[in-house]
Amino acid sequence: xxxxxxxxxxxxxxxxxxxxxxxxxxxxxxxxxxxxxxxxxxxxxxxxxxxxxxxxxxxxxxxxxxxxxxxxxxxxxxxxxxxxxxxxxxxxxxxxxxxxxxxxxxxxxxxxxxxxxxxxxxxxxxxxxxxxxxxxxxxx
Length: 140
Known about the structure:
It comes from Zapornia atra. This protein is an all-alpha fold.
């Protein structure tokens, strides 16, 4: 009798706990999905309000950050052969020396270039940016 009583109460407790955990996890999953959908809607609405100039500047900043991270990879640092030379020539316009350098340039670039990019149009702005980069390579 004791074994049956303990066994049945253990099974009932297990089923009750199992039901509670499933309900809790479904609620948490629903909350998480709702939050993810809200975040996606906010990003989408923000993206729709971004001007062409701001998109251009964000793209150039993304290239700057990508090249900055690329230079931190051991195989891409100076003295590693032909691929470094090619990368150096192609990406010198997007290179930055330190974290402070890229942060300061990104801040100034965002503050002053978005309106210029909107006025010039993204194609002309990219042409001016790349031309300035090439000229700075020759000067340096």
